[in-house]
């Protein structure tokens, strides 16, 4: 039997473990972590999800993966009762910055909207 180890029991580790098991049900998935719920920081803290550029990863793949991750987390919020809260995020700066708007940031079909407020 094939075995896969996932390091970490936070939102990323557990989400990866679940997705691996869903796609490959015959694989034995083991989560390795120092602590598990309710003794993790994820049980009481907020987290920000935001795709970003990773080296020379093509923008098309970042957009695809970013939207898939967003839709997965959004679905957990809507349907699975996982105590996930979806809140708007505001990034504030003291001085105006010329921030890039990436392709993934304006996807109305995935309910992802980036807006610059002056």
Please, could you describe this protein's structure?
It comes from Euphydryas editha. One of its GO terms (molecular function) is FAD binding. This is FAD dependent oxidoreductase domain-containing protein. InterPro entries: DAO, FAD-dep_OxRdtase. Keywords: FAD, Flavoprotein, Oxidoreductase. The chain is α+β, with helices and mostly antiparallel strands. The chain folds into two domains: 1-47, no CATH class; 51-118, no CATH class. 29% of the residues lie in helices and 12% in strands. The protein is built from two helices and four strands. It has helices at residues 11-23, 59-79, and strands at residues 3-7, 28-32, 106-107, 112-113. The protein has a two-stranded parallel sheet with strand order 1-2. Helix 1 (11-23) links the parallel strand 1 and strand 2. The longest helix has 21 residues, at 59-79. The chain is globular. The termini are far apart.
